[in-house]
């Protein structure tokens, strides 16, 4: 069973509190696997890798420190964010964090394929890439194999904003939106297809 909560626009601080509460409830078995679908007002989350490497976004971006894996991730308008509060590790293909990230990448790649967009994995960084540019980011945090944080998909973000944020080991302008690459995907249609893909994968 999958509980999907479409929350609309939620501040990042509110989402962090909710994720922690739901993660604990999932650990206790009080709720089923739960997927939060939402977006955030503009903010750049700064993971431990970015903090350790001294990597910062430009000064005109609001930032918040987070405990998920990875470096800098831009959030804002025109982006679909998904936070899977899932209990993992019960299937053979979920034996490691890398396996779980691979699964989530597969969900996003299959969803993009439904819109005739070729998404791929790239050895430069986890996530999903289109035409050599990164359009989907993934970063997770776990407690007792229950995940928190998740993925973001840049559909039609404000011009130049996500492009100005350099991820760890990546130059500015490597990350972009699908709209900037010429792909017009409606957010509601994307979410509908994504949920179909995820539910099908969970039944398999």
Q: What does this entry look like structurally?
A:
The protein has 204 residues and is of the alpha+beta class. The protein has one domain (2-203): BirA Bifunctional Protein, domain 2 (2-Layer Sandwich), CATH 3.30.930. The chain contains 4 helices and 10 strands. It has helices at 12-27, 48-53, 97-113, 187-203, and strands spanning 2-9, 33-39, 43-46, 63-65, 72-75, 79-85, 120-122, 125-130, 133-143, 146-154. It is globular. The mean pLDDT is 94.
Question: Any descriptors?
Answer:
about 200 residues; 4 helices; alpha+beta; BirA Bifunctional Protein, domain 2; about 25% helix
How do the helices and strands line up, and which of them pair or pack?
Elements: E1 2-9, H1 12-27, E2 33-39, E3 43-46, H2 48-53, E4 63-65, E5 72-75, E6 79-85, H3 97-113, E7 120-122, E8 125-130, E9 133-143, E10 146-154, H4 187-203
Parallel strand pairs: 1-2, 3-4
Antiparallel strand pairs: 2-6, 3-5, 6-10, 7-8, 8-9, 9-10
Helix pairs in contact: 3-4
Strand content: 25-35%
CATH superfamily (homologous) name: Bira Bifunctional Protein, Domain 2
Write down the CATH topology. BirA Bifunctional Protein, domain 2
Q: Give the fraction of residues assigned to helices.
A: 25-40%
C-alpha termini separation: 13 Å
Q: Which stretches are low in confidence, meaning pLDDT under 50 for 5 or more residues running?
A: none
Rg, rounded, reads 16 Å
- Tell me about the largest β-sheet: 7 strands, mixed
Order of helices and strands: EHEEHEEEHEEEEH
Write down the CATH class: Alpha Beta
- Main-sheet strand order equals 1-2-6-10-9-8-7
Tell me, rounded to a whole number, the average pLDDT: 94
The CATH architecture name reads: 2-Layer Sandwich
Q: Name the structural class.
A: alpha+beta
Number of domains: 1
Number of strands: 10
Helix tally?
4
Question: What characteristic shape results from the CA principal axes?
Answer: globular
């Amino acid at each position: 069973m999958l509980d999907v909560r479409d929350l609309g626009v939620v501040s990042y601080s509110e989402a962090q509190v909710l994720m922690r509460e739901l993660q604990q409830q999932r650990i206790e078995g009080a709720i089923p696997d739960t997927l939060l679908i939402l977006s955030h007002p503009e903010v750049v989350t700064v993971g431990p890798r970015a903090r350790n490497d001294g990597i910062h976004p430009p000064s005109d971006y609001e930032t918040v420190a987070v405990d998920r894996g990875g470096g800098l991730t831009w959030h804002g308008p025109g982006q679909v964010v998904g936070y899977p509060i899932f209990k993992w590790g019960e299937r053979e293909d979920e034996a490691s964090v890398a396996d779980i990230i691979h699964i989530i990448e597969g969900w996003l790649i299959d969803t993009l394929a439904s819109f005739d967009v070729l998404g791929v994995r790239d050895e430069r960084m986890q996530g999903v890439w289109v035409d050599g540019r990164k359009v989907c980011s993934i970063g997770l945090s776990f407690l007792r194999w229950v995940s928190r944080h998740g993925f973001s998909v840049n559909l039609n973000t404000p011009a130049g904003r996500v492009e100005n944020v350099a991820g760890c080991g990546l130059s500015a302008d490597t990350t972009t939106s699908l709209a900037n690459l010429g792909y017009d995907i409606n957010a509601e249609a994307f979410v509908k297809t994504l949920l179909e893909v995820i539910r099908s994968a969970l039944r398999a």
